[in-house]
Amino acid sequence: MRGIPGSGVIVFFLVIILIEVLAYLGILQLISGKRQRKLGSIIYGFTTMSFLVIWMIAFFNPEKIRQTTDYTFFYFVIALSVMNLFPKALMALATIISFPFRMLRDQFLSKLILLSGVLISLGIILSVAYGITFGKETLQTNKVDLYLDSLPPQLNQLKIVQISDFHLGSFKSDQFLQTTTAEINRLKPDLIVFTGDMVNNYYQEMIGFENALKEMKAPYGKFAIFGNHDYGDYSNWDEPEDKAINHAKVSQKIRDAGFKLLQNRNEKVEMNDTSLYIVGVENWGHKPFPQYAELDSAMQNVPAPAFKILLTHDPAHWEAEVLPKTNIALTLSGHTHGGQFGLKIAGITFSPMYLAQKFWAGLYLNNNQYLYVNQGWGCVGFPGRIDMNPEITLLTLHSNRIETN
Length: 405
What we know:
By secondary structure, this protein is an alpha/beta fold.
């Protein structure tokens, strides 16, 4: 097996087995009767062995994942892993917590803790199942109003639709994209911008989605940049030329869909007797990930006082280079997917992605410079979304330079 050391595989499976054993012991304590325990043991053992066999097939046949344009098996493994491992990990924790009470012969508290673990685990299974079946195609339109000192009055109420992270290979048909296109066109934006990750790896993933992409309409243009997945960096290639050809075909298909692809360059957009610049950089990522972005090149020939909108896939680029180097008023990013999972408590959404990305979703402000992070449209890794819906962002820009009586 390529890419994963044998010791890592052994440790992984030892951890999995430990979780399975602890969860089993906890569940067994809630079952009374010899016959019922035997039946429960058989069912638990069968499901556990089935999952372990599937995991072993995935681990020892990485080409099923890394060298295919059909992600069905990959997502099948991930979905089963999440639905099996997360609830059982919680049940294993409940077993550990209940152990001292069991030793103290406090059967009531011991079983209460274990029963709580079972109920929460069932809740997790149902949430994951909903996220896979419905959550990934429950479209959300977020409307954001921005008031900008640098926006020319002629551009007041400029409407921009931002979309990001399609990962088209994760979908079997263009039905959901057609629904998204209809919603975008209903919003009647002046501009449409796509902030990266059209595919997971391969240009073939765009086949069948071309019409839905072409049908997105904006009178002043559609603009796109690359995300980290659009380069084919996460696949194995027989020859470097194969990777280059694949990337070129992704680029051409994006252009064929009517998007102006900004590869470390800018585009001047004229409207209402004035202009603005759409600046687009290639992917910027924390090392060891490749950094293809060349912000200085992308900004060439852009007048310093001009109103600029930057498209950069990774929001970490904003703090690392955009803020210290430029006066760009608005930066638009994606990449994070909002973690594809969130918890809403008292109207506030939290995602584990916060622990990995400082700027993970929504609007951020530093002095007079804004960053908006779109939580993405498609899925990668986990084939679903839980309280982190696919997003269309409608940004309406208002000029603070308009005098009001």
